[in-house]
TrEMBL record:
The chain crosses the membrane at residues 6-24, 36-55, 67-86, 98-118, 133-155, 176-196, 202-224. It comes from Dyadobacter fermentans (strain ATCC 700827 / DSM 18053 / CIP 107007 / KCTC 52180 / NS114). InterPro entries: Homeodomain-like_sf, HTH_AraC, HTH_AraC-typ_CS. Keywords: DNA-binding, Membrane, Transcription, Transcription regulation, Transmembrane, Transmembrane helix. Residues 262-360 form the HTH araC/xylS-type domain. This is Transcriptional regulator, AraC family.
Amino acid sequence: MDNWKAIAYLLAFGQGFVLCLSLIARSFGGRRAGLFLGLILLVLCQELLNAWGMQVHYHSRPDAIPFWNWQSYLVLPLATWFFMRLTTEPGYVFKPKYGSFFLPVAVEIAIRCAWSFYRNTLGVEIPSLLDNAPWFFVTEILPIMGMVAVLGIYGRRLSRIHSGLKTHGGERSARTWFRFYGLFSFLSLLTILWIAGVIFEWPVFSGIELLLALCLSGLGYIGYISPDFFTLPALPKPKQPEKPDFARFDDRAEFQRLRDVFLRDQLHTRSGLTLDEVAGHLQLPPRYISYLINAHSNTNFNGFVNGFRVEEVIRKLADPGEQHKTILALAFESGFNSKSTFNQVFKQHTGKSPSEFMLVQK
């Protein structure tokens, strides 16, 4: 059984290592999020290689290459932080000066290598670095603390973006949920097991190794095949809503009535739908409807209507009875009046072009 585990760990390492190198290489073409996803996978690949080494007792061989000295857990919170910002903040740019945050990683690896060289080459018996309390705190406890903090911020951002998209009619599906929370859930579970093993000294490392072997390749393939998969659609920038004096209306009830009338009467399928037409349908002042949309959807009237139109297209794409129609025909049926507008709005709401979305759905 142990031999099978060793083989499985080595295969998963090889597959994940190739993927993380590919992600890092492709990041130089401008996809910076791939660089940090690759760094995350690299650390996890090293962990699997270390698990393989323990299975076959590689560490005790006199001719062993000390690859374990080139691993640093400090990479994880840093890479996760920049990956989060690049995928949740439109226009965020990783500047070269930010690379200085990774200097502690280089220092740790240099000290590990020097310590190993001094002990093995000169034959000097010295204690393990992990027996040093400050070193253990910096290289084991501090990365855990960093991951907990970064994942806390990451989770709040994901929830806010997801809720914002749902408010103005964004797509709702298992794929959407995974796109938002798949990587986050994996890293969260990994961090929980990490805390249990390092701080509470529970015997969970076999569980960590299994989790890495199962999830590493899948997440790597997703990031390689679709580099923008984890880049979330941008929410429109919140506008300070105008506050007209409409005290006689119940804002919450009227906004729900506005959404219900779109869902029930399919107003968004009318090409060229105007604010005045919606106001006449609801018998409400146009300025009040504009205020409701700005205040409760963080978007304008066009963004609100287009959200329903994109949702309508996605619904029809999943309907077997609509499969004989082109996606452009579905777009026109859903209320769009031009191909360019449809392509632009669809990518803004889903993060993918219509053709890319259809390929993933298949």
